[in-house]
Amino acid sequence: MNLTLKIWRQKNAQSKGKMVDYKVTEISEHMSFLEMMDVLNEQLVNSGEEPIAFDHDCREGICGMCSMYINGEAHGPDRGITTCQLHMRMFKDGDTITIEPFRAKAFPVIKDLVVDRTSFERIQQAGGYISVNTSGNTQDANAIPISKHAADEAMDAATCIGCGACVATCKNSSAMLFVGAKISQYALLPQGQVEAVDRVNNMVAQMDLEGFGNCTNIGACEVECPKGISLENIARMNREFLKANVKG
Amino acid sequence: MSGFFKSSIGRKFTMALSAFFLMFFLLQHFAINFLSVLNPDAFNEVSHFMGTNPLIQYVLQPVLLFGVVYHFVMGFILEIKNRSSRVVKYAKNNGSANSTWMSRNMIYSGLFILIFLVIHFIDFWIPELNTKYVQGDMSGLLADGEGYRYYEELQHKFLPPWRIALYCLGFIFLALHLLHGFNSAFQSVGANNKYTKGLKGFGKAYAILVPLGFIVIALFHHFNH
Ligand code: HEM
Ligand code: SF4
Ligand code: FES
Q1: What separation in angstroms does the CA of A165 have from each of A83, B77, B208?
Q2: A63 Cα to the center of ligand 3, angstroms
Q3: Which GO terms describe its biological process (chain A) (predicted)?
Q4: Nearest one of A39, A170, B144, A18 to A7, comparing CA atoms
Q5: Inter-chain contact B7–A220, Cβ cutoff 8 Å?
Q6: Closest B-chain CA to A225
Q7: Residues forming beta bridges with residue A142, ordered by sequence position
Q8: Which chain A residue lies closest to B184 (C-alpha atoms)?
Q9: Is B130 domain-assigned?
Q10: Is the pLDDT of residue A188 over 90?
C-alpha cells in the first residue's frame, strides 16, 4: 500500500519542531508499524536526509520503548498492543497517518519522536521497591503464604512496562495509572507492607513534583494501555494514600 | 496532613467529597421541589421550615455554600494545572476512541452549571435573603397575609419562557456533568470493587432522572398556573 505520513520533526530539545509530510510506497500489510518506519528511514538515508529518530528496543511488546502517538492515539488504533506490535493491516491504501511523539510536560521531546521518560524512573526510585536482606540470609519468597487472588492481582499490576501510553493518552497528562500499578504490585503482597506508608507518600510526591496532571477518572489510559492495567489500581493507590495520611 | 490537601490525590479526594455533598443536596432539593407538584400546601410548610430552621439556615446553608464554592474553585484550579501539564498539544487527538464526551468536558458542563447557579441565586436565594434578613420578615406570608408566599413565588418565577429554557438547559448540562461525575466520585475516594458495575447503572439513573425531574417540575409550573 501507499501512504502519506505526517511526522513531527524536531532537531533537539531546544528547537521548535514541526509536522513534515512524507510518502512511502509498496508497504506490505504484514509489516509492523516500526518496519514501515524503517522503510521510510532507509528512503531518507538514501536521499541524504536525516532519518527520523524514534525509540524502540525489543520489538515484541516487552520493553515499552516504542512511544508513538499515531492518528490521535497512543500506539495507534489497535488495542492491547505497543507500536512495535501494531500491524500495517490496520491501515488502508492511500491513508494519511499522523505520527507524533508522546506529549506531556514531564516527557520533554529529545529529538523527533523520542521523548525523555526518566520522570517515570525518578518516581520508581522514590519508592517502587522493597528493601530485602541479600546478605545470604534471604528468606525464600515461597515461604510466605500469599493467596492466589492477591498474587494474581499483584502480577497483573506488575505487567506494567512503563511505556507512558497512559500519560500520553490522558487529557490531563496524569501518570496515575502507571504509579497506581507500581504501588499496587507491592500493596497487594505481604513483602510490601513494611514500607507501604513511605512508598505511597514518596511516589505520589515525586509524581506531583515531575509535573504530571491530576487524574479525573476519564479512563482513556485503561483503554490505551498495552498491558490492560485496570483503573482499580488507581483506586487502590487512592486508598493507600488515604491510609498513609490517616496513619501519619 | 497539610501535604495531603496540596497533593494531587488529596485534591481529588476533597473534590469528590464536595461532589458527594452536592449530589446529596440535589436529591433533597428535588424531593422538596417535587412536593410543589404533588401538594402546594405541603410544599409551603416544608419551604417555611427549611427557610427558618436555625440549624438549616446557619449551619447547613453555609456548608452548602462552601461546598459549591470549593467544588468549582478546585475544579478550575485542577483544570489549569492539567492544561499546563501538556505544553505542546497534539496535532491530531482522537479522544472519542477511548473516553466519553462527558468525561472530557467536565469543565464546560461545570461552567454552564455555574452560570445557571448564579442566575438561580439571583432568582431565588438573594430575594429570600432580602426578605428574611434585610427586611426582617420571617413570617413567610404573602403581602396580604393570606397564607404562605413560597408556592406563589415559585409559580410566578416560572412564567417567562426564557427562564424555563435556561433552566432546562442548565439541567441538561447537570445531567451530562453527573453522567461522568457520579461514578467518578466513587473512584476518587478509592471505591472500585465488586459493587462498581452495579453502581454504574445506578449512577446513570441518578444522572438522568434527577435533572429530568427538575425539568418536569419547571415545565409543570410554566404550563399549569
Ligand atoms: C458550580 C459549577 C461547577 C463546576 C465549575 C464544576 C466543575 C467540575 C470539574 C472541573 C470536575 C472534574 C474534576 C474531577 O473529576 O476531579 C467536576 C467533578 C464533579 N462534579 Fe462538578 N462542577 C460544578 C457543579 C457541580 C454540581 C452542582 C454537582 C452535583 C450536584 C457536581 C458534581 C460533580 C461530581 C459528582 C464530580 C466528580 C467528582 C470526582 O471525580 O471525584 N458538580 N466538577
Ligand atoms: S500503566 Fe499501561 S500505559 Fe501506563 S506505563 Fe504501564 S503499561 Fe504503559
Ligand atoms: S519496542 Fe519494545 S515494546 Fe515496542
Answers
A1: 10, 25, 33
A2: 5
A3: respiratory electron transport chain; tricarboxylic acid cycle
A4: A18
A5: no
A6: B98
A7: none
A8: A217
A9: yes
A10: yes
Residue B93 maps to a domain: no
Q: Which residue has the higher pLDDT, A183 or A133?
A: A183
Set of chain A residues whose Cβ sits within 8 Å of the Cβ of B92:
71-72, 98, 100
Dump pLDDT digits (tens) for B20-29.
999 999 999 9
For residue B118, give its domain range. 11-78+101-224
Smallest Cβ–Cβ distance between A172 and the set B82, B98, B192 belongs to B82
Beta bridge partners of A4: A23, A96
Interface test with A, best of B85, B107, B177, B199 (most A CBs within 10 A): B85
Determine the residue of chain B that is closest to A100 in CA distance: B90
pLDDT of residue A135: 85
Tens digit of pLDDT for each residue in B142-196? Answer: 888 888 999 999 999 999 999 999 999 999 999 999 999 999 999 999 999 999 9
- Max Cα-Cα span within chain A: 64
Residue B105 lies in a domain: yes
The set of residues, in sequence order, having a beta carbon less than 8 Å from that of A112 and lying 6+ positions away, is: A7, A8, A9, A10, A52, A53, A54, A101
Cross-chain residue pair B187–A169, CB shorter than 8 Å: no
Number of domains in chain B: 1
% of chain B surpassing 90 pLDDT: 91
**Minimal Cβ distance to A232: which of B11, B189, B192:** B192
**Quick one: which H or E segment has residue A98?**
strand A96-100
In terms of DSSP bridges, do strands A96-100 and A109-111 run parallel, antiparallel, or are they unpaired?
Answer: unpaired
Does the CB atom of residue B26 touch ligand 1 within 6 A? yes
- In chain B, the largest separation of any two C-alpha atoms, in whole Å, equals 66
For residue A71, give the nearest of B8, B92, B190 by CB distance: B92
- A75 in ligand 3 pocket by Cβ < 6 Å? no
The whole-angstrom separation of Cα B183 and Cα B181 is 6
Structural domains in chain A, sorted by start: 3-111 (3.10.20.30), 117-132+143-247 (1.10.1060.10)
What confidence tens digit (pLDDT) does each residue in B62-77 have? 999 999 999 999 999 9
Extract the C-alpha cell encoding B177. 456533568
C-alpha distances out from residue B95 to A192, A218, B126, B184, B196, Å: 36, 10, 41, 18, 24
Task: Name which of B100, B208, B221 is nearest B158 in CA terms.
Answer: B221
- Distance between CA atoms of B101 and B180, rounded to whole angstroms? 9
Instruction: Determine the Cα–Cα distance for residues A124 and A143; give it in Å rounded to an integer.
Output: 27
Task: Output the pLDDT for position B1.
Answer: 56
B183 contacts in A (CB within 8 Å)?
217
ipTM of model: 0.94
Whether the pTM exceeds 0.90: the reply is yes
